Amino acid sequence: MFQILEARELTENIYFMVVEARRVAKACYPGQFVIVRMDEEGERIPLTICDYDRQAGTVTIVFQGVGAETRRMAALQAGDSFRDFVGPLGCASELIAEDKEALKQKKILFVAGGVGTAPVYPQVKWLHENGVAADVIIGAKTKDLLILEQEMKAVAGNLYVTTDDGSYGRSGMVTQTIQDLVEKEGKSYDVCIAIGPMIMMKFVCKMTEQLHIPTVVSLNPIMVDGTGMCGACRVTVGGKVKFACVDGPEFDGHQVDFDQAMKRQQMYKTEEGRALLRLQEGSTHHGGCGNCGGDK
Amino acid sequence: MDVLKKVPVREQEPCVRAHNFEEVCLGYNREEAMEEAARCINCKNAQCIKGCPVAIDIPGFIEKIKEGNMEEAYQIISHSSALPAVCGRVCPQESQCEGKCIRGIKGEPISIGKLERFAADWAGEQGIRPEGAKEKKDKKVAVIGSGPAGLTCAGDLARMGYDVTIFEALHEAGGVLVYGIPEFRLPKEKVVRREIENVKALGVKIETDVVIGKSTTIDELMEEEGYDAVFIGSGAGLPKFMGIPGEQANGVFSANEYLTRSNLMKSFEEDARTPIMHGKKVAVVGGGNVAMDAARTALRLGSEVHIVYRRSEEELPARVEEVHHAKEEGIIFDLLTNPVEILSDENGWVSGIKCIRMELGEPDESGRRRPVAVPGSEFVIDADMVIMSLGTSPNPLISSTTQGLEVNRWKCIVADEEHGKTTKEGVYAGGDAVTGAATVILAMGAGKAGAKGIDEYLSGK
User: Fold this and answer.
1) Chain B residue nearest residue A264, CA to CA
2) Under an 8 A CB cutoff, do A87 and B215 touch?
3) How far is B18 from B304, CA to CA, in rounded Å?
4) Measuring CA to CA, which residue among B278, B257, B373, B281 is closest to residue B332?
5) Is B436 helix (H, G, I), strand (E, B) or coil?
6) Cβ-defined contact of A241 to B247 (cutoff 8 Å)
């Protein structure tokens, strides 16, 4: 059992939890992920690591309540436990392995979208601790859905916030901010790391391709075991099949087949929709899920 | 009673079991077991023992069943095997113990597997546990992986008195016994869990959710956590795909994924929280035991199921009993058929599988006749789901993070057969991680060899 030491809602439907997991806290690096299971019947849910404290033996996760299982998880409180919390899985960010002096010369841009701000944070923090100031763009639908702004401000070089509806910071999509920074505000970048919804990463890559900025993305496909066993997470990168769990989750964004990856994310949408319906309707549920026979 | 014939074993009717996940074979009861045991002629130079990878004293335990002394029969088996209830169900007895049985020359061999299963199930129902070590040794051994190789090695070492901890990457112990082999062939609660409890009763500790190579490494276990020796039984977990066009379409799964969802995550149950796809028409590509397991699982979940295999029935690598059961239940075999492309609709979902007819040519290096494509014979099998069951290869997670551990060109860990000794001091290995995908019992044999090797190594220290 892995105890939750702190749990709060960051904004509507996005949850922040600090979990005691000594082995993971000791071994993990930015860019890696964990798989959690809330209880004996729970589904295995992959989540990118948002922060860790080796001394305290804790790992921080941030997740959005999207399906039935993450909505169940959202109800967990400090003092509750996860039945399973395994990791770190996947490869660490390539920045970690680079020569520190060379890294200091690099101009790095992070682009974070929505809940993707969480996995960007430990990378920017790690760079900050190693004397590298990276620029960060955070994009959110609207002001109220913005997360980790203050935390990011403390570790980023320049922080640019943009909201789709213009309710806070700049107005428009993250791609607009990237273009403005490079074309109008005299910025130049050697590398871009983009993490967020698949559709955002796709369009960021289109933009950075135009601007000739090498770009790394972190993919979050469907997974079961997270150790290379099931192949559910396979993605096509540069025409080759890769397993996101062991070969990734970070890949060269200009090589990723996003259209295929987005289709593959839809794989269990019907089943998940039915499960969500069952959960939401609770005891008033009377069919429509396709499973219980109540609609026959 | 015909002494040349096995006492028949009761099974669920095919038309009934095709719709449930209850065990297919119901096993012997006490009377049937004693009647079957009476057929054994108790050979002086018992060939069956030579056919058993863990060398169980087979005539010995059968003699006890004949006398009605079931507890003694169980203790004799458990002296050599940590997982008798499992082996009685999934071992290929026809090519091992039963294949060598003298009774088999003139008639049918003794039903050794079913007798082993009976003794183990009987002991389980009575709550009888195997006997543990009398004296403890002050040495710590780490076992990586809780599948058949790891459980056997851990069980043997614990019985010798070592302080053993198993590290398991998944959330539940059992390896392929829990994620790979379906409930209807190997009940999880009644059989697998009980056997694991028996291994724990010997003093073995199991830590789940630890991925060696990620959460920690073998070097750290030995240098920082004080383990004196390590056994690697991490299996062959990486699924193979064909590399044909369309394989990334929605609805194409590895058998590993499909079976893990159904078996480990219990997706076959209606209220399960992990989803599984229910295809209308499913094509399973491959002809091994895993292909049969995947096909029979899909059948039970309501699909029409085709096995697509490029050679003929004779070359099917699956056990005869599994093929027989699959046919009885209504699986359709499309033999001498090889997929060349997966077709999909405009939304990226599987709509069919384009195949080519094959014929058998000259024997290849495996001794089986090589399948050769018949030019111009392409045709399409209608399907909305495809399960690839083409075998697995070892996971490089451990070998790539352990200093001085050699692997061969198939990424299998190099280890000697007799002791499981690897190229790294104090580290032993066995099972699929060494041989590539094989059987439960061969992995158990390797686990035993590893335990012996580790004992010799630590005794000499």
Assistant:
1) B250
2) yes
3) 11
4) B281
5) coil
6) yes
- pLDDT, tens digit (0-9, with 9 covering 90-100), for B388-407: 999 988 888 899 899 899 99
Q: Measure the CA–CA gap between B132 and B136, rounded to whole angstroms.
A: 10
> Can you tell me whether residue A243 is helix, strand or coil?
strand
Distance CA A31, CA A195 (A): 10
Backbone angles phi, psi at B174, to 5 degrees: 135, -20
Residue B285: strand, helix, or coil: strand
Distance CA A266, CA A245 (A): 18
Q: Which backbone phi and psi does B321 adopt, to 5 degrees? A: -60, -35
CB A231 to CB B241 under 8 A?
yes
Per-residue pLDDT band at B274 (split at 50, 70, 90): very high
Average pLDDT, chain B: 93
Cβ pair B400, A228 in contact under 8 A: no
Backbone angles phi, psi at B10, to 5 degrees: -75, 140
For helices B58-67 and B70-80, what crossing angle results, to 10°? Answer: 170
Helix A174-183 to helix A198-210 angle (10° resolution) is 20
For residue A266, give both structure tokens: 């839809």
Mean pLDDT of B163-177: 97
Which of chain B's residues have a Cβ under 8 Å away from the Cβ of A260?
A: 248, 348
Token pair for B289: 């035991």
- B239 touches A229 (CB < 8 A): yes
The pTM of this model reads 0.91
**CA dist., res. B360 & res. B225, Å (int):** 55
What is d(CA B338, CA A102) in angstroms, rounded to the nearest whole number? 52
Sign of the C-alpha dihedral computed for residues B328, B332, B336 and B341 taken in this order: negative
Alpha-carbon span B278 to B299, nearest angstrom:
10
User: Residue B424 corresponds to which tokens in the numbers above?
Assistant: 């790294």
